[in-house]
Design goal:
The chain starts with a strand and ends with a strand. Helices cover 16% and strands 38% of the residues. With 208 residues, it is α/β, with parallel strands linked by helices. It is globular. The model has no long low-confidence stretch (mean pLDDT 94). Strands 1, 2, 3, 4, 5, 6, 7, 8, 9, 10 and 11 form an 11-stranded mixed sheet that branches.
Length: 208
């Protein structure tokens, strides 16, 4: 269950989201993410960053943590660390995909940081949802027009089983040198995925 939302600083078409989606969530804005929250009519609980993208130090009726631009953590990573330190176990991250490839890759790496700290995090945009999973059993509901792609984030993922999809498999191994899991399709109400070891990157993308 998601109990915290982070708005990062990439482009975000806020018209594609209903503000009710974020109701009763703890809201953290990372730098320019403050503008996205404002556009949705949301009041953040925490604002963090060096504010180079925003271009000014935000004034808001909440906690604001300002950092120098010369720092090791990205603004998103600062926000994520704050969320984890405050005890949140389910985190949805918006406006962290697209635009610059280096920032997108850094956003995906932030999912690994969350996973290593026992936290379930997702990257969500208008067209994509990205998750990083540890070994276990999972289900994904069918969404019309979306593909389901699976990649090994670790050296390999072993014991991978997929059912309820166009390409179903049983007890296979995939590795991070060959993208065999790209663009599968969920054909039933939900797809069931399980694997015994490794880290699995799951991307659901809207076909445009």
């Amino acid at each position: 269950m998601t109990d915290c939302v982070i708005f990062a600083g990439a482009e975000m078409d806020t018209a594609g989201f209903n503000s009710d989606t974020f109701k009763d969530k703890y809201i953290i804005c990372a730098d320019r993410g403050f503008e996205h929250a404002n556009a949705l009519g949301l009041s953040p609980d925490l604002i963090v960053g060096d504010f180079d993208s925003l271009g000014y130090s935000p004034k808001a009726d909440c906690e604001v943590m300002a950092f120098k631009p010369e720092k090791d953590d990205t603004d998103l990573m600062i926000a994520l660390k704050q969320a984890i330190s405050r005890g949140f176990k389910g985190i949805d991250i918006y406006a962290a995909l697209g635009c610059r490839l280096d920032h997108t890759f850094a956003s995906i790496q932030s999912l690994n940081y969350a996973l290593e700290h026992g936290v379930k995090a997702r990257l969500i945009s208008e067209t994509d949802t990205v998750e990083l999973l540890s070994a276990g059993k999972y289900s994904f509901e069918q969404m019309k027009g979306y593909t389901l792609s699976l990649f090994s984030y670790s050296s390999n993922v072993r014991g991978l089983c997929i059912s309820g999809a166009k390409y179903s498999v049983n007890e296979i191994t995939i590795d991070n040198t060959f993208p065999i899991g790209v663009s599968n399709e969920i054909t039933e109400n939900k797809a069931l995925i399980s694997f015994s070891s490794g880290k699995l990157l799951v991307i659901q993308s809207l076909c445009q």
